[in-house]
Amino acid sequence: MVQVKICGLRNKEAIQAAVDADVDFIGFVFAKSKRRVTMEEAVDLAQYVPDHVKKVGVFVNESIETIEEIAEEVGLDYVQLHGDETPAFCEQLAFPVIKAFEVKSAEDLDRVASYDCAYYLLDSPGGKYRGGSGETFDWSLVQKHNFLTKKILLAGGLKVDNVEEAIKEVAPAGVDVSSGVETDGVKDLEKIRAFLDAAKKGDTNGKI
């Protein structure tokens, strides 16, 4: 079953809508972003996330000490790294890592091989901040690449009207959405529900 991550959640209503629609991962952004939350806000929001839904913290070029302090306080299950973190940096963390890679060409995918992480998030090139550009990248690049057993999360420009196609074309372990379930920069409860419904429909390969 394809997994779904909703990222950049900032209020309990959006979290509840995602949980009720069978979300797998909830993402809190601790890096510079209009969706950024403080550690204290995330601790409060985390109480609305049931144990079976995994909590992910998003960081960009942050120190190991800060990442682990926030992860412990919030009770994160994964840390997602969107910066220039090296394979060695990822291995030093005491939490499972989701490493994000901006995909412009096949060469960008070659970098994945040197990382040993829980998941590999393939995203479109960012805009003002890392990630979250709301644009798709060329999915055919992934089809041509042999990832062996690596678990891929597909991100970048996904929304309700293209997520089924994305899942069928790329066959990822999961999909990640943020701006694609927003209206005027705010999480839209109906779009969250519709996206999760479409993503689960698009899962025809049974791949994890």
Automatic annotation (TrEMBL):
**EC number, as in UniProt:** 5.3.1.24
Q: Which InterPro entries match?
A: Aldolase_TIM, PRAI_dom, RibuloseP-bd_barrel, TrpF_fam
In what pathway does it function?
Amino-acid biosynthesis; L-tryptophan biosynthesis; L-tryptophan from chorismate: step 3/5
Q: Which Pfam families match?
A: PRAI
Superkingdom of the source species: Bacteria
Q: For this protein, what reaction is catalysed?
A: N-(5-phospho-beta-D-ribosyl)anthranilate = 1-(2-carboxyphenylamino)-1-deoxy-D-ribulose 5-phosphate
Q: Where is the N-(5'phosphoribosyl) anthranilate isomerase (PRAI) domain?
A: 4-197
A single Gene Ontology MF term assigned here is: phosphoribosylanthranilate isomerase activity
Q: Which UniProt keywords apply?
A: Amino-acid biosynthesis, Aromatic amino acid biosynthesis, Isomerase, Tryptophan biosynthesis
Name it.
Answer: N-(5'-phosphoribosyl)anthranilate isomerase
> What species is this protein from?
Gracilibacillus kekensis
